[in-house]
Each structure stands twice: as C-alpha cells, then as structure tokens.
Amino acid sequence: DVVMTQSPLSLPVTLGQPASISCRSSQSLVYSDGNTYLNWFQQRPGQSPRRLIYKVSVRDSGVPDRFSGSGSGTDFTLTISRVEAEDIGVYYCMQGTHWPPVFGQGTKLEIK
Amino acid sequence: QVQLVESGGALVKPGGSLRLSCEASGFPFREYYMYWIRQTPGRGLEWIAYITETGGTIYYAASVKGRFTISRDNAKNSLYLQMNSLRVEDSAIYYCARDTSGSHFGYWGQGTLVTVSS
Predict the structure, then answer these.
(1) Minimal Cα distance from A94: which residue of B?
(2) B61–chain A Cβ distance below 8 A for any pair
(3) What residues in B contact A105, CB-CB < 8 Å?
(4) Strand locations in chain B, DSSP E?
C-alpha cells in the first residue's frame, strides 16, 4: 500500500496567523487519467471527518477560501492563510490514486 | 441534502458478531459506490470495505477480509456491514461514506461506535 506521511503531527498556531501541513506519499499520485487524487479532510473535536479539498487543490462547497491545497507528484501542502478558532481539529491527507485508499496519520492543529 | 446515518454499534465480546447499518437519503443511493471506514486512536482512519452500485464488485481491506461482509439494499437505501469473529482491535468508530465530485469520501455519516471487549 501507498504510505502517506504528514508533518508536523502537532501544530500550535496563533489565531490570525498562517499554518501549513505537509503530506508526502511513497509513490507518485498522478493517475493514468492525468488527475492527482489527493484529498484533505478536517475533523473537529467530536465530529466526523469533513472533506475540505479534493484533487490537490479544489475546495469543496462551503469551504472558506482561507484553505488552499497545492503540490504535485509526491509532495503536497494544505495551507490556512489565517487560522480562526473554528479551524481547531485534526487534518488528514488521503490518497485515492492507488488502491486501497490510504490516509495520513493526522496533524493536530491547536492554539498556542 | 445528503444524509448518511449509521446504526448498530454496540459492546460485543471477542469472537462475537454485529451488523451495522447505514441509511442514506437525499440522493439516488442506487447510483453510488459506498464505503465503510473506521477510526481508532491507534490506527487512525482506515478504509475497510467498498461496494459498487449494484453490489457486483466488492473489496475489503486485508485486516477484515474473510470476517466482514459489506452489502446493500437499494430498495431500502441502505448499506450494511456484517462483522463476524470480532477482535479487540476491531474496536472503532465505523463510518459509511460516499464519493462526490469524482473523488473519494465527499460525504460521511456521524459514525457508530463498536467496542469489542470481554
């Protein structure tokens, strides 16, 4: 299986400041159709995971534009331009290019 | 709006069985692949089973293959997970999920808790 490695695993942030989470895959995530199936999920405390971004950089409906995704091949980044209190939780990357789908370990975003 | 509601989670002894259900609404259930995903503190999020629209193709994670069975009833808009020979390490929150926008897991249910303990 593809291995997804996130860093850091814990990210203390100051409200209003930017935050970035890295995700690396053990194989290229470019699929034969030309798409790269790398998704980002947010899990707030006590809630189910919610998809924020799919295919590297496409925001899901209702996701604030302070969230952005970037990257290619094996290296990907989720960036929050200005962290708000409601952003606290755990963030996961996930690859869907190679079967089976695999999630990263998660990065816990917390307030300093 | 899309809704996925899981049920059936419980406390069960090792070696026991349990059947989870996921009731879908707000979309044409028969037109979508469906998944079961579980979450534990130790193993994080783990995809465990997948079924195509008609049930013609099914895949399992190695950790549950031979013990768990995914199925669906399109007339009832429902997805199921039959779990047999349960182990302590199967203790988790179990979610059903659906793709959207051509990519995985755009919709999730609220989850149902399974605890396997003697």
Answers:
(1) B104
(2) yes
(3) 44
(4) 3-7, 11-12, 18-25, 34-40, 44-51, 58-60, 68-73, 78-83, 92-100, 103-108, 112-116
**Distance in angstroms (rounded) separating the CA atoms of residues B54 and B43:** 30
CB B98 within 8 A of CB B2: yes
Asked if A48's CB is within 8 angstroms of B110's CB, the reply is yes
pLDDT tens series, chain B, 118 aa: 999 999 999 999 999 999 999 999 999 999 999 999 999 988 899 999 999 999 999 999 999 999 999 999 999 999 999 999 999 999 999 999 999 888 899 999 999 999 999 9
Give the three-class secondary structure for A65: coil
Taking the C-alpha atoms of residue A16 and residue A68, their distance in angstroms, rounded to an integer, is 16
B-contacting residues of A 2-31, CB under 8 Å? none
A49 with B95: Cβ contact below 8 A: yes
As beta bridge partners, residue B79 has: B22, B72
Q: From chain B, pick out residues whose CB is under 8 angstroms from the CB of A106.
A: 44-45
B104–chain A nearest CA distance, Å: 7
Those residues with Cβ within 8 angstroms of residue B39's Cβ, 6 or more apart along the chain or in another chain: A49, B45, B46, B92, B93, B95, B111
